[in-house]
Design brief:
three-stranded antiparallel β-sheet, Deoxyuridine 5'-Triphosphate Nucleotidohydrolase, Chain A, 36% strand, mainly beta, 174 residues, 2 helices
Length: 174
């Protein structure tokens, strides 16, 4: 069962959904719009190796935004902290931004129950595009789980800003 916009507002006021900062104007019929944060990462390795940490540049962007040439890839984040111990957040890209040639892939669009933090966005431009902190790029919906709830305790808990992959931690040391 998906929550409607009015239910998202009600459950946020009850503390069962965390969206911080919260702006009631960002509620839609059955989702909440998420804004792009100001911190970004760009990998600098010629070849990405998932078995080890990969070098990257980390930078903040102001009101001038970030110009992404066609084919560019950066990691960004939501301006909002999102989470719930009671509902499953699912994050989707906004169709309007996709129509401008920007693919917004959500790190894990199905957010674990109990996960709390800023949402990671992988941003891939198919056309040259300028992105600005605060622009709407995604939306989050909330779904009622069925069954026993086990809360998330993973490595990305309490994420702030853009975060590089830590998949290398899944491989045993050689």
């Amino acid at each position: 069962m998906i929550l409607t916009g009015t239910a998202i507002l009600r459950e946020s006021r009850r503390g069962r959904i965390v969206i911080d900062p919260f702006d009631a104007e960002k509620i839609t019929t059955n989702s909440y719009d998420l804004a792009l944060g100001s911190h970004f990462l760009r990998y600098t390795e010629p070849v990405i190796d998932p078995r080890r940490p990969n070098a990257y540049d980390s930078f903040n962007v102001g009101a001038e935004g970030i110009l992404m040439p066609a084919g560019d890839f950066v990691i960004g984040h939501s301006a909002e902290v999102v989470g719930s111990d009671h509902y499953v957040p699912i994050v989707h890209a906004k169709s309007g931004i996709a129509r401008l040639g920007l693919f917004v892939h959500i790190t894990a669009d199905l957010i674990d129950l109990g996960s709390l933090g800023q949402i990671g966005f992988q941003l891939h431009s198919t056309l040259p595009i300028r992105l600005y902190p605060g622009m709407t790029v995604a939306q989050v919906t909330f779904w009622k789980p069925k069954g026993e709830i086990v809360l998330y305790k993973g490595r990305y808990q309490n994420s702030k800003g853009a975060r590089a992959s830590e998949v290398f931690k899944d491989y045993p040391e050689d």
